[in-house]
Amino acid sequence: MVTDGRQISDEELSALVSDPSSSASSDSGSDQSFLDGADHIRPHNLVTEDTTIGINLAAIDMINERFTRHVRLGLLEVLRTSPRITSDRVRTITFGEYVQTLKAPLSVNTVRMAGLRGTSLVVIDPSVIFAALDNFFGGFGRGIDGLPPGRMFTPTENRIINIMLEVIFSSIKEAWAPVLDLKCEQVGAEINPQFVQIVDENDLVICCHLEVELLGKEKGSIDVIYPFSSLKPIRDELRGRVQDSEDPGSDHRKWAVDLSAAVSDAELDHKVTIGEIDLTFGELDNLCPGDIIPVRLFDDARLSADEIPLFTAEVGSSNGSAAIRIKDRYQLDKPQSEA
């Protein structure tokens, strides 16, 4: 047993550094001859990532779909326009391969997500940024193409980026809520993806790619990159079923409140009826100026909307104008039961 703080003993260290060819065992000799004659054997690095460790990419797909919905609603609230956002299936690639697909200038943001180890990336295409900027100030959502690689973002453009990051961070939090309580914090920002390295080039990352289209004109993308290693500790949670973070009952109540608020702004034509006149078409056709028509007055006036009686009321005046006072809700006659 090792007692001096080292991980292995002297005997174990000697066994590891010893020359395996010095062994005289016939079994080891036959194994070595087999290895020498095999041409299909390829080297394997024990420290490289393995995609077969059981991470449920279907769960990441569901999280990404929820993220897409929340981003769409968030941008709708900020930009006052409905963007068209579609999400691709998540894919697993090496970080080096992903960086090769990027071209400066971009808004490359390193993000620390409390709840996941390591650092993630949020990459926003400049076409999305400039379209959002143009739309934010009342334009038609036009983007800018052909930017030089070293072109820096202006303070106004950075403000738009920060607004979009706030929407993205809150959307990530809501999307991951059924699995994990995440809190996003921006660590840094670059325009050149070559200057950002959250993992080694050969390490795997999970790419969540969103295609964004504003006002049917400008198209761009938003990428969220998770290091593969950051999802290993929660692979058991990802294997489970991803359920909605909100209670279904509270979700229905929220929809009811939102619908009620939306309906309350609708305009309705109202009319007040104080009585009725029963006439045939012939009697109506024979009317002349000066004729007297009997009117059957109601006990109470009726306030109606779209020909539906709603309230009973009293007719009077207020501040020199005709007015009514609501008395009670109008009670519709109940149909009589058949004998």
Whole-number tally of structural domains: 2
- Report the portion of residues in β strands: 25-35%
* Rg (CA only): 36 Å
Number of strands: 11
Keywords:
alpha+beta, Chemotaxis protein chec, Surface presentation of antigens (SPOA), 4-stranded antiparallel sheet, 33% helix, 26% strand, disordered C terminus
Walk me through the structure.
By secondary structure, the protein is of the alpha+beta class. It folds into 2 domains: 57-243, CheC-like (Chemotaxis protein chec); 270-329, Surface presentation of antigens (SPOA) (Roll), CATH 2.30.330. 33% of the residues lie in helices and 26% in strands. The protein is built from 10 helices and 11 strands. β9 (296-305) and β10 form a beta hairpin. α3 crosses α6 and α5 (126-136) packs across α6. The protein is elongated.
In short:
This protein has 339 residues and is of the alpha+beta class.
Topology:
Layout: H1 10-17, H2 26-37, H3 57-79, E1 84-87, E2 91-94, H4 95-100, E3 107-114, E4 119-124, H5 126-136, H6 155-176, E5 183-190, E6 204-214, E7 218-227, H7 228-231, H8 235-239, H9 248-263, E8 270-276, H10 281-285, E9 296-305, E10 308-318, E11 321-329
Antiparallel strand pairs: 1-6, 2-6, 3-4, 3-5, 4-7, 6-7, 8-9, 9-10, 10-11
